[in-house]
Design brief:
The structure holds two protein chains of two kinds. By secondary structure, chain A is mainly alpha-helical. Chain A is built from eleven helices and three strands; from the N terminus they run ααααααααβββααα. A three-stranded antiparallel beta sheet of chain A has the order 2-1-3, sandwiched between helices. Chain B is mainly α. Helix content of chain B is 48%, strand content 9%. In chain B, a hairpin with a 5-residue loop joins strand 1 and strand 2. The N terminus of chain B is likely disordered. The chains are: A mainly alpha, B mainly alpha. Chains A and B meet through helix 1 and helix 4 of A and helix 1 and helix 7 of B.
Chain lengths: 267, 222
């Protein structure tokens, strides 16, 4: 589809730096992080930066890696601009405060305003990038035995879970902007599908009847799919399964069941 | 059936755009109008029709359906689709080619007077409206709304909400800031879309008519 001049400019940006297969371009913070923190950062361990507490983590794959299911222009704008703005805003909101991992801000995020919107936005997107992988890799993964057992117990089967997830992702169910989650309760014996509005997530006290710990999430804000799919959200949702990296989802599941806390994210 | 006086429609109809799909380029592109009107707005209308078929709401005006369904939080679909049908019909009339800028003091004296009275100046109104449009988080709308005396205020709403149901006010201008309204043309740059809307697209004739109707005590918004 032909992109408008404005959108094309967003993608090209600095012509010398432009390449669809290049890693993200979110500015000096990432390059400084690599130099200053070296191995820890390279290993993907979340380490708050010196002056800006949060940063946009690099995608673990190129912008075009999730094609044709999620298009390269969307990945670049979604990551660099939308996630970038959430990070800028949460850094503004937390300036001068003690640096804590973004996960730690989630429980009490529900007072309206920057932490709920921008903090939630940062956590949700950092979580989202890492649960996906190029189809060639993703297609070789599947839910673990223990995750499958809990899915079967709660939904009957994987296919029934998938159908329920897609129903929750429909525009009538999450109306407007939001996310759909597969999440485990703190006790670790129940798994649910939960839709949340805007940048809320089930880690935030007050969003659901109790806190739930996400193992899989899907962004259904229009910016997540509009360039390629326009109004066809159901098509985006059904295509997205092709890039779900169940190895990471399984890791998330083992972690939340063992530790009774949410998954940490990079950045 | 379109009600030419109010710019609203009864259930059943997708009103045609008041202009061609290329008429608002480059501020709003052809693909955006085709999709926004032909897919999004059309879907709200068809979904609403299906939901009210065979119910007591079936032959009511959109305003009546919105007010009746607004409080029913357990079944939001009727309100969401009715209100979005209303909001979009209203929005198309708020746009025109070669629109925007400042309303003409001679042609729209009452409107200019009320904007100055309510905001101090046009530029203060513009600032408040743009702020509302740019800070509506997620999917929503920015409105200029009137009470029955012509006192104006800027309001932002979430989802399908509008000042009729959530504020008891009378909309006179709206800007859709759901991402689907601008994403193909502006991606994340919502402020550029809002500037284009205010500078190049606002149909001040429609806004002035809405204000007259709001003040005209004969107008019944039930």
């Amino acid at each position: 589809m032909k992109l408008s001049a404005t959108v094309s400019t967003l993608l090209v940006g600095n012509a010398a730096a432009f390449s669809m297969s290049m890693k993200s371009d979110t500015g000096a913070a990432n390059r400084r992080d690599i130099l200053v923190k070296g191995a820890a950062f390279a290993a993907g361990i979340a380490v708050p930066a010196a002056s800006n507490a949060y940063s946009v983590p690099d995608l673990p794959y190129g912008f075009d890696a999730l094609e044709p299911y999620i298009d390269a222009p969307t990945m670049k704008i979604h990551h660099d601009k939308h996630h970038g703005t959430y990070v800028t805003n949460i850094n503004k909101a937390t300036e001068g405060k003690d640096e804590v991992p973004i996960l730690d801000l989630m429980a009490d995020a529900l007072e309206a305003g920057p932490v709920r919107n921008s903090g939630g936005g940062h956590y949700n997107h950092a979580f989202f990038w890492d649960e996906m992988a190029p189809h060639a890799q993703a297609s070789k993964t599947k839910p673990s035995a223990s995750l499958s057992a809990m899915i079967d117990k709660s939904f009957g089967s994987f296919d029934e879970m998938k159908a329920k997830f897609e129903a929750q992702a429909a525009p009538g169910a999450v109306f407007g902007s939001g996310w759909v989650w597969l999440a485990v309760n703190k006790k670790g014996d129940e798994i649910k599908i939960i839709g949340t509005p805007n940048q809320d997530n089930p880690l935030m006290k007050g969003v659901c009847d109790e806190i739930y710990l996400p193992v899989l999430g899907l962004d259904v804000w229009e910016h997540a799919y509009y360039l390629k799919y326009q109004n066809r959200r159901p098509e985006y949702v059904s295509n997205w399964w092709n890039v779900v990296n169940w190895d990471k989802v399984n890791e998330n599941f083992e972690y939340v069941v063992a530790n009774h806390v949410g998954v940490s994210v990079r950045g | 059936v379109a009600n030419a006086n109010t710019g609203t429609t009864l259930t059943y109809d997708l009103p045609p755009l008041p202009f061609g799909t290329s008429a608002l380029k480059p501020m709003i592109g052809k693909k955006t109008l085709e999709t926004h009107h032909g897919k999004h707005h059309a879907k709200y209308v068809s979904t609403l029709n299906a939901l009210v078929a065979g119910t007591s709401l079936e032959h009511q005006t959109l305003e009546k359906i919105m007010k009746a369904s607004y409080k029913n939080k357990s079944k939001p679909a009727i309100f969401n689709n009715a209100a979005q049908a209303w909001n979009h019909s209203f929005y198309w009339n708020c746009l025109k080619p070669n629109g925007g800028g400042v309303p003409n003091t001679n042609q729209h004296a009452k409107l200019v007077e009320k904007i100055n009275a309510s905001f101090g100046s046009f530029s203060e109104f513009r600032k408040q409206f743009a702020d509302a449009a740019n800070t509506a988080f997620g999917s929503g709308w920015a409105w200029l709304a009137s009470d029955r005396k012509g006192n104006l205020s800027v309001v932002k709403t979430i989802g399908a909400d509008n000042p009729i149901t959530s504020g008891g006010l009378i909309p006179i201008l709206t800007c859709d800031v759901w991402e689907h309204a601008y994403y193909l043309d502006y991606a994340n740059l919502r402020p550029s879309y809002v500037d284009a809307f205010l500078d190049k697209l606002v149909n001040w004739e429609f806004v002035a008519e809405n204000l007259e109707r709001a003040i005209d005590s004969g107008r019944n918004w039930s």
